[in-house]
């Protein structure tokens, strides 16, 4: 018997998101496109914020204080720390992107894609019910096993 997965709110949110991504993107091609878009959007946003923070650093505090009413004022040390961290993230994302390109070289036949869809339907039938998912895995032969949630 496998250990019961953590049920804290963060983990539950993760399970829901995880299963939603399987349910809504059930083929290899869709997963490739989804993850490519995800990495690209992550890089774009982090890159733009990094650029913006660097401008604030360059232009000093005058422009910075204009946005203080948003609770958005940072001193130079905070700016430099944030810029360094975001640059690290961007470097990692760039590495991931290079690996993802290798993943995108792979294509499978429609028959294999059908297998992806079938399995996706089995493991993520209801994104709001992790208990059902666990039961489906445990009792794969009896998909109508009663819900034990309560
Ligand atoms: Zn947890």
Description:
With 150 residues, the chain is an all-alpha fold. It contains six helices and no strands. Helix 2 packs antiparallel against helix 4. It is flat. The model has no long low-confidence stretch (mean pLDDT 82). The protein binds zinc ion. The site of zinc ion has 4 residues, from helix 1.
Bound molecules: zinc ion
Biggest beta sheet summary: none
Count of DSSP-assigned helices: 6
Uncertain runs are: none
Reading the helices and strands in chain order gives HHHHHH
Task: Please tag this protein with its features.
150 residues, mainly alpha, flat, binds zinc ion
Helices and strands in order:
Blueprint: H1 9-24, H2 28-59, H3 61-66, H4 76-104, H5 110-123, H6 130-138
Task: Give a concise summary.
This protein has 150 residues and is mostly helical.
């Amino acid at each position: 018997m496998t250990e019961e997965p953590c049920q804290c709110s963060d983990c539950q949110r993760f399970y829901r998101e995880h299963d939603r991504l399987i349910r809504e993107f059930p083929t290899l091609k869709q997963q490739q496109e989804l993850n490519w878009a995800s990495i690209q959007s992550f890089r774009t946003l982090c890159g733009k914020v990094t650029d913006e923070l660097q401008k604030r650093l360059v232009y000093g505090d005058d422009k910075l204080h204009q946005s203080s009413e948003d609770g958005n004022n940072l001193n130079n040390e905070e700016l430099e720390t944030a810029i360094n961290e975001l640059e690290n993230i961007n470097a990692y994302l760039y590495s991931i992107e290079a690996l993802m390109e290798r993943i995108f070289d792979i294509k499978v036949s429609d028959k294999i894609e059908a297998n992806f869809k079938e399995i996706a339907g089995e493991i993520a039938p209801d994104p709001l019910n992790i208990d059902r998912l666990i039961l489906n895995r445990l009792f794969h032969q009896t998909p109508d096993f009663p819900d034990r949630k309560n």
